[in-house]
Amino acid sequence: MADAYTPPAVWTWEKESGGKFANINRPISGATHDHELPRGSHPFQLHSMGTPNGQKVSILFEELLAAGYPAEYDAWLIDITKGPQFSSGFVEINPNSKIPALMDLSGEKPIRVFESGAILLHLAEKFGAFIPTDPAERAECLSWLMWQMGSGPLLGGGFGHFYAYAPEKIEYAIDRFTMEAKRLLDVADKRLGEVPYFAGQQYTIADIAVYGWFGMIARREAYGTAYEFLEFASYENVVRWSDEMLARTAVKRGIKVNRMGDGLVRERHSAADIDAVM
């Protein structure tokens, strides 16, 4: 057993924390370098990466386009492992230096929107789509959206980090966050045993938000052997819902945007960019 750690009276940043993302972790905010972000010809400029949080927004854009809404967008890759989220251009959109970040240029005045939940809500309200109009159903939709936003860090920064990315395996941390990850899956499984979608009978931004995280595990694309470790298959209602989500063409398209693989950077500036890798 490693020596017990005794926290100092005042914490100071003296070395990198270790782990996969140590080179981009720091205790201060703000830009580290000057760099203007690119801008395309479409009314929406998305600066993101195909992580669980990033996929939420690209899925919604693809759903909007599939439904006939004028939601054409340029998707620019922000490779968070290399630090472009700390550029002056990105910080102007999101002072928190996290993806996704959106510039809405569709109106008379540019609007910046950051945090994935805020972007989903902004777009859903703008187009009047994928969000219920009935007050009770809307409240249910927003409740599950906020549930996901609140629980996402426990699944990603908690379970995912200590299970897959931390420089050493810490039993207490893995047990603590595995317990919480399985509790969240149980909450979702019970809800989806009552209704087909999180908000009820209607597919909404709540489903898109949750799928960003659960979908990565369902497709075995997150945290190594997490699918088996969490016994994901035992949550039968979540599995049913996950399969139905992935059967949607817009979801298939959305999860490919701003992904890197096979030597390709899958930025999206036209439908053909994603069609080429479907």
TrEMBL record:
The keyword Oxidoreductase applies. Its EC number is 1.8.4.-. Residues 134-264 form the GST C-terminal domain. The keyword Ubl conjugation does not apply. Coiled coil: none annotated. It comes from the Bacteria. It is an enzyme of class 1 (oxidoreductase). InterPro entries: Glutathione-S-Trfase_C-like, Glutathione-S-Trfase_C_sf, Glutathione_S-Trfase, Glutathione_S-Trfase_N, Thioredoxin-like_sf. Residues 41-131 form the GST N-terminal domain. Pfam families: GST_C_2, GST_N. GO terms for molecular function: oxidoreductase activity. Keywords: Oxidoreductase. CDD domains: GST_N_Ure2p_like. This is GST-like protein. The lineage of its organism: Bacteria, Pseudomonadati, Pseudomonadota, Alphaproteobacteria, Sphingomonadales.
